[in-house]
Amino acid sequence: MGKRTKLIIVVLLFIIVLSIVFLIKNSSNKNESKYLTVMVLTVSDDLVTVRDGNNIIYTFDNINDFTLESGDTVVLEYTGVLNKDISNQSINVINYTTSNEPSKRTINNDIFADFYKMAQTKLDSLSLDEKIGQLLLVRVPDTNKIEDLKKYHFGGYLLFAKDFNSKTKQEVVNMIKGFQEASDIPLLIAVDEEGGSVVRLSSNKNLVSAPFKSSQQLYKDGGFSLIKEDTINKSKILQELGINVNLAPVVDVSTDPNDYMYKRTIGLDTVKTSEYAKTVIEASKNGKVSYTLKHFPGYGNNADTHTGSATDTRSYDDILNNDLPPFTAGINAGAEAVLVSHNIVSSIDPNNPASLSSDIHNLLRNKLNFTGVIITDDLFMKAITDNVSGSATVKAILAGNDLLIVTDYAESVKDIKDAINDGIISEEVLDAAVLKVLAWKYYKGLMIDKIK
After folding, report:
1. Residue-wise pLDDT tens digits, 2-34
2. Residue 141 and residue 157: Cα distance in Å, rounded?
3. pTM of the predicted structure, to 2 decimals
4. Which segments of 87-168 does DSSP mark as H helices, in order?
């Protein structure tokens, strides 16, 4: 037998031995006990849904022998492999113990990390009604604007074209100032000012000489440098009026003019849409107006969810490779908020609209490492009202949203309070979401600006 043959045999034997050792070790690891600290969200006859300290939601179907209640904070002892990309788990939970400390959202690398201590102090001073109100971003009502603001303690007001119609700049400033003065906690004042076909305030020539251009037109006229300039200019105008949140940019990827969302997108491929997201978020950091990436996890070629349900049938890999990169780029650039669509994304969660899906929120929190505020699209759009049974506001909170856009706020408040009283939503779960909203307000400087 030649030296070369002997060497090959030795190498092969070495590889086989290493493989056996690895398999034994891997098998051993699967049987080793691991621990997970969680807060119990819901308990049913068949399933227990929990949330961990990173705001990842899991559903277990094999721990029915344990006595758990909504709101409990426990340490689960389990064997097997926990998959953070999906909510339904097949691990073997073998024991649990009550944790002395409530499960907290991680603040490692959290965009609001420096503000949670102040936010917690404020949170501890709030009543249940005030906490519930902070979760609501409300379309400005036609009547009782100030009275209901005081009664329900809204987290913010969302303004539409009707709220700016025919008003002068000073009238808008006074209107928003009146809202802020009526609220004990500074308000998020938001608007959809995308440019192009969605121009809530710039459609009023008293406020802006001409409507803001669409992202497609800006890119055509001057590329990303003009988009940056437009963002800075837009932010300055919004800030002067008292608006501090813009529900833009639209970072959905669409290159087909037949798509419903196409005219609201930049109309470019994934790479250039990612650059667009990065450009807008970075430019927005020069002012006090926060921008919001939407519509997670990407709208694709789906129908209008204002008028009915829409189902996205694309593969997970397609969404992962084509739709998520712009959100990742915006998050890495410092995005503070992401708005989730009402599309049913069948490859991720075939049973729930994205806005009400814990799997979608886990994807955003875990895979994209987003630590900011998650906002629902308007929960009174027909994709929700005509197709979702039960309370959408309750489902939205349990799915992992921090801020809910609502129109019928009285109904939303009642549903949330009933869910808390019935043990469906624990106050600990409520507190976790409110803490995120308050931390955002401290981050933005709103809480410091208002002296109590």
Report:
1. 666 665 665 566 666 555 555 544 544 445 667
2. 9
3. 0.81
4. 116-124, 128-134, 145-152, 161-164
Angle at CA of residue 334, ends 333 and 337, nearest 5°: 125
DSSP lists the bridge partners of residue 345 as 312
Q: Give the CA angle between residues 94, 95, 98 to the nearest 5°.
A: 160
Report the candidate in 135, 148, 89 with the shortest Cα–Cα distance to residue 362. 89
**Cβ neighbours around 225 below 10 Å, total:** 10
What is the distance between the alpha carbons of residues 81 and 86, in angstroms, rounded to a whole number?
Answer: 12
d(CA 177, CA 244): 12
297 secondary structure, DSSP code: T
Cβ pair 98, 72 in contact under 8 A: yes
What number of other Cβ atoms are within 10 A of residue 198's Cβ? 20
For residues 339 and 376, is the Cβ–Cβ distance under 8 A?
yes
Q: Compute the distance between CA of residue 103 and CA of residue 121 in angstroms, rounded to an integer.
A: 17
The single-letter DSSP state of residue 62 is: S
Using CB atoms within 10 Å of the CB of residue 79, give its burial: 0 to 12 exposed, 13 to 18 middle, 19+ buried: middle
**Spatial contact of 290 and 243, defined as CB atoms under 8 Å apart:** no
Residues 6+ away with beta carbon under 8 Å from 38: 50, 51, 52, 58, 73, 74, 75, 76, 103
Strand partners, 448: none
Which residues 6+ apart lie within 8 Å of 432 measured at CB? 39, 51, 55, 104, 105
Q: CA quadruple 324, 39, 395, 111: dihedral positive or negative? A: negative
User: Cβ distance 311 to 389 under 8 Å?
Assistant: no
Task: Give the H or E element holding residue 360.
Answer: helix 358-362
> Which range, of 13-27, 197-211, 262-276, 280-294, averages the lowest pLDDT?
13-27
The residue ranges of DSSP E strands in 209-286, in sequence order, are 245-246
Give the residue carrying structure tokens 């060497």.
Answer: 7
